[in-house]
Structure formats: structure tokens, C-alpha cells
Amino acid sequence: MSESILTVSDLNANIEGQQVVESVSFEMLPVGVTALLGRNGVGKTSTLRAILGLIERSGEVRLAGERIDREPTHRIVQRGVGYVPEDREVFASLTVAENLRLAERDSSPNRELIAELFPDLTERSHQLAGTLSGGQQQMVSLARALVNDNRVLLVDEPTKGLAPLIVVDVARALERAAETVPVLLVEQNLQVVRMLAERAIVLEGGRVVYDGSAEELLGNGALTKELLGVA
Ligand SMILES: Nc1ncnc2c1ncn2[C@@H]1O[C@H](COP(=O)(O)OP(=O)(O)OP(=O)(O)O)[C@@H](O)[C@H]1O
């Protein structure tokens, strides 16, 4: 079995004095997509933000065996933890090309991979990002992370609020991206989870309540209803 790329042990996090992540532990294999699931407000986004040091937290986080939980966020990112936040942070008044250039931190950015994964963005390289559709902005957001070599990519609800056809495009881009970098994916759309993830970790009240096969979870209607609140 391959070694864990991301190991989270007894992670706790608070927002304004409220504990939002409670003793979360899991290991992530260095391949494919691991889905981080759970009902609204159970602490999925907070878990990603705690791994990145964006909120107050305690516990251990290791990247390929090395502790990163005592480092500031910019160092964690430099070490290769890519982040695609929930709110598609693009610079609206800059072009697509400028958005990508600003994200480049490696001396040899993955421009060919971006062109291959997102041909539409290449065509729109001179368009202002603020004039793109939600789906296109999500592609820019993903491309901004993939332009650098990451060891792991944390992606938060990439298909939220997108039209069904665009959801499929985003899922395909993620599937292709996951061939180059392991992805920890927060996703509410279970069709997307089914398509992409082999493994699922489910949170409830800030704690891990399931860690196992995504197929087994989603194939078990009663368990899916119990843990995710949907049939
Ligand atoms: N900025 C904030 N200020 C106060 N409370 C917050 C803040 N951000 C999150 N919380 C609270 O922390 C808890 C966990 O939120 P979090 O966003 O991590 O959950 P989530 O599982 O990602 O939810 P969702 O699926 O709705 O995005 C919730 O109770 C939420 O209300």
C-alpha cells in the first residue's frame, strides 16, 4: 500500500470560540480523489482551512510524513498544498491570462497542462475574468492551482451553483487533474462524488463518522441517508 501523502491527526479548530473541527483524523493516499462529505455546516470547509492554517487549530498535519501544522499558510502552500476555495477567488478586473500568471510560483509553470485541460480558457485568455460565467470562473480557479506542481490539492465545492452541463465539464477537468495530483474534494453533488472518488470521509458535528469506500457508502441508501441526509 502506498504511503500517506496527507496525514491529519487529532485536528481541532475553532471559529470565534466555537469548536468546528473535533479530533479529525484521516490519512490520504497519494492517488486519486478522496471525498470529504457531510451535511451543511458539519465542518468540511473548516477542515480544509485548518489544514492550511487559515483558522486557529491544534493537532498534527503531515505532508508526505513531514509536519506542516506549525508553519504559516504561505509556507504550507509553497510546500505543495494547493487550494481551490469555495468562492472561486478570481481577480475580476484582470484577464484570464493575468489571473493565471499571478498564480505562477514555480520556475516552470504547467502551462501545457492548463492548455490541455482548459482549452476554453486559452481561447478566452484576453477576456476579463469578471465577465466569465460561473463555470468558466471555476475553471480559472482550478487552473490557478494546477499551474504549479502540487503534492496534494484541496478543492472546496467546485460544482456549487453550476448548471448541470457545466458540472460535468468541471468534474471531467477534475478527473483529469487527479491523474496528476491527489485531490481532497469537498462536494455536495453525489453524482460527481460517484464519478470521481474511490474513498469517502464523512464528517458529522466536526467529527469523522465514516472513512471507507465511496462506492459502498453511496451504494447503501440507508447509510447515505443517515450520514448525508439524502436518499
Ligand atoms: N466565519 C464564520 N464565523 C462563524 N461561524 C462560522 C464561520 N465559518 C463557519 N462557521 C461555522 O462553523 C461550522 C462549520 O462550518 P463549515 O463551513 O466548515 O461547514 P461545511 O461542512 O463546509 O458547510 P457547508 O456544506 O454549508 O459549506 C458551522 O456551524 C458554521 O456555521
UniProtKB/TrEMBL annotation:
InterPro entries xref list: AAA+_ATPase, ABC_transporter-like_ATP-bd, ABC_transporter-like_CS, BCAA_Transport_ATP-bd_LivF, P-loop_NTPase
A single MF term (Gene Ontology): branched-chain amino acid transmembrane transporter activity
- Domain of life, source organism: Bacteria
Keyword list (alphabetical) reads: Amino-acid transport, ATP-binding, Nucleotide-binding, Transport
One GO-annotated biological process of the protein: L-amino acid transport
Q: Does the keyword ATP-binding apply?
A: yes
Q: Which ranges carry the ABC transporter domain?
A: 6-230
* Family stated for the protein in its record: Belongs to the ABC transporter superfamily.
Its protein name is Amino acid/amide ABC transporter ATP-binding protein 2 (HAAT family)
